[in-house]
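User: I'm putting together notes for a lab meeting next week and I want to include a structural view of one of the chains we've been expressing. I don't have a solved structure, so I'd like a prediction I can at least talk through. The sequence is below, exactly as it appears in our construct file.
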Amino acid sequence: MTKRTDFGGFGDVAGAFNQQEPGDYHSPWIFDWLKELVGKPARDANVLEVGCGTGTLVRHLARAGFDLVVGIDPDPRMIAIAKKVTEQRCLCAPTSDMPFPAAEFDVVFVHYAFEHFCHDAESIAEVKRVLRKSGILMTVTWPITGWNRRRNEVILQFAVDTRKPLPHHHLVEIGYADLLKELGFHNVETRRRKVTIKYTMEEAKRHVRGSSFLSCVPQHRLPDAYRALDELCEREADVNNMLSRELDVIVDVGRR
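Assistant: Thanks for the context. Below is the predicted structure for the 256-residue chain, given as structure tokens.
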């Protein structure tokens, strides 16, 4: 059973994490593909986002036309913010014990969170339990970029404790297609596309403060860490004072 309640430390930076991507979602093609797969009008499809955090993707799903969206996250700090900023229902619950009836959802959507519970048998059983027959599990992830590595190197200079990497974190780099097949999902498909996100300096500085690695930094050292991160953003900005981040977005889909 999954014991962790923070999905990798993001709850410690919930306030900053909520401000990472205030604008349009960078890969709307994901929602277009989901609409093709679901087999009914998006407005009629019941969608559960697991690991919803502060509700950012719940809101994007709703804007894309999915009216019946629910989010869950095991961290109450994330859910407290989600309830303030989204009209969609967001609940605090572990992945291994989700408070929903069997066969409740047409889609389980997992955005950059699957690595935290993908090898937990009880959580996977719960995903299958709440999915309807032939329901869709969609996972979204991307490899760690050079920008992420440089950001993490700066933060770890101020850390007194570091989290051990998850034993299956390498799946973030390659996607979950093979694992979905092993877990008994059928008709597994993968789509992968490159996207470039451009941040203003203000947006970039907000973004780096949403890193879960900051949960490893003691409170008294956070001001120094923030200053170092600001300097990193300033060094990496282009002549227009913008900072670019390239992602290889990997989307894997399997059916129950």
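A couple of points you could mention at the meeting. The longest helix spans residues 222-236. Strands lie at 46-50, 68-73, 89-92, 105-111, 131-141, 186-200, 242-255.

User: Perfect, that's what I needed.
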